[in-house]
Design brief:
By secondary structure, this protein is mostly helical. 48% of the residues lie in helices and 11% in strands. The chain has a three-stranded antiparallel beta sheet, sandwiched between helices. α1 runs antiparallel to α3 and α4 packs across α5. Bound molecules: manganese (II) ion (MN).
Length: 202
Amino acid sequence: MYTQPDLPYDFSALEPYIDAKTMEIHYSKHHATYTAKFNEALTGIETIAGNSVVEILKNLDKIPEAKRQAVINHGGGYLNHSFYWSIMTPGGKQLSDIDLKTAIINDFGSLEKFQELFTSEAMAVFGSGWAWLVKDNISSKLSIQKSLFQDNPISKSDVTPILTVDVWEHAYYLKHQNRRDNYLADWWHIINWEEVAKKFQS
Ligand code: MN
């Protein structure tokens, strides 16, 4: 059984960038439902007993075809939201990790250029989905990926996600309405770069 991890801060802690009501609904309705439905989808699948959600999403061929899409949707919804909560923190934490800083400069030119490109990729997700910063597991090179619905990049490529943003409208509509660009501009203020660096180093 998968359980929803505790939110590492209060619903109101990311104000004024993400409002308390959005956080409350996002965590206690959307994420909670993905968690419940993920458990439901896994019922009776013995091939993945003891596997982590990461292992499950990396090896979707082990999931019977009739259940595969439900596992992609709800397993992704479960993992993606847990990940998204973890890379945000009240007020944000600066990027001080030298290795990650160097990698971003090498692969994107500068932190500012990376943020510009990541924002434009997040803007370019058509409909509901996510933008990701991922590390290639062989070359360690960083790149940006987009995914639709609750797909996670690990299902399609050999990468480790280190940063993500949820661009489903439920992540920002109450405060920012249709202005995804305003949401993204706000979101950069609350990035937990310490946690992103930890994921990069892992
Ligand atoms: Mn969401």
